Amino acid sequence: MRPKHTQHPLPSFPVYACAFLTPNEFVLGGGGGASRSGIKNKLRLYSVNDSRAIELKDEYELEKGEDAPMSMAAHQETGTIVCGVNSVQEKLDKGENDNCRAFSIKDNKIRPTSTRSTLPGAGKSDDYQKVTVLSPSGSILAVAGSNDLHLLSFPSLESIAEPIHTEREIYDVAFINDAVILATTHNLFVYTLPDSVSSTTTATDTPSSPRPPKKKSKLNPNGGTQKLPTLELKTRVDLPDSTAEGSSFRAIRCHPNDESAVYTAINAVTPRSKKSKGPSRQAFVVKWNTKTWTVEKTRKVGDRGLTCFDISADGRFLAFGSSDLSVGMLDARTLSPLVSILKAFEFPPTFVKFNPTTSLLVSGSADNSLRVVTIPQEVAGTSFAFVLFMLLAVVFLLLAIATKQYGVKLL
């Protein structure tokens, strides 16, 4: 596949998060962070046309001293995005942090709607909301900092289960069937969602107005408090033996149409050898069978660590960004390489994101730029391996016909 792609400079706007609202509209989150760099932290709404040109529709400037949005998810039916933004230092010192924030996008305008505090510890400004994921139904929102996962109802942002604390660092979260998968440095933890959690809210609800953080327990009709359900650990998955020593999970995505397929991005650092000047770095994409939690396929995709990962809405493609500054795409069925854009950025990519119709792939970086890739529809969903198989089948068919008609002997 030889896709066309266009790079767009975004002056004074390092980007870290992206979410599509429609096939041709997306929101970017970025800025200079909480430091006094002079670069403002913003949310920006863009449209993109068929020729990959982008147009700025609106921007929302965050309060001075707040952090840049570092993770983001979109609820397309209601035109809502949720992102992680740390509050100003004065609030953090008081133990207040409205880190989980919802915004409505209507008439090309970005408007704040509600907030929620999920990060623990007064004044702990080094932690941030690194994971923001909506369930496929849009009714459950998973947000996580370095070591704590919270499940919230959407759009109310009320807690619907006891938080999960992990000893190792959290990197990603994914929903599959009636479970939530937590990806930490060395393990995948599969938690069963209680029936009460799955039915707390529906995807057709509308965003609520701003409200203060909720407590972990809520009042029941008879007075007192009702304890939140505790998630049950169903399965713990270790790193696969096929990956290099020193590996760690970096991201996880579930196949949208096949509950038995889950994909993980794994980074590895092997010990320094006598012949090498330093540790060897490698990156892998692994396909898992969730019925047995065994590895079905493994593909080495580079000699540097992966920084971002995504799966298309139709489940046909995987995309990744690497710390070697490249962006790549794989066939989700075979893990065969389809696209490799070398030196796509000056800094490592911070996100890769497919649009809802799998016609575009957008990636961004802290180097103040965005790249839009057009996925050719004439080959979309067709891997190189499949094309090669078909060509070989045609060749053998022609040889068989020649043998029958002309008596040609095949060696």
From TrEMBL:
Compartments it resides in: Endoplasmic reticulum membrane
Region (Disordered): 197-233
N-terminal signal peptide: none
Low complexity bias: start-end ranges: 197-208
Transmembrane segments: 379-402
GO cellular component: endoplasmic reticulum membrane
MF terms (GO), sorted A to Z: guanyl-nucleotide exchange factor activity
GO biological process: endoplasmic reticulum to Golgi vesicle-mediated transport; protein transport; regulation of COPII vesicle coating
Membrane topology of the entry: Single-pass type II membrane protein
Extent of Polar residues compositional bias: 219-228
Keywords: Endoplasmic reticulum, ER-Golgi transport, Membrane, Protein transport, Repeat, Transmembrane, Transmembrane helix, Transport, WD repeat
Protein name stated in the entry: WD40-repeat-containing domain protein
Organism, as annotated: Crepidotus variabilis
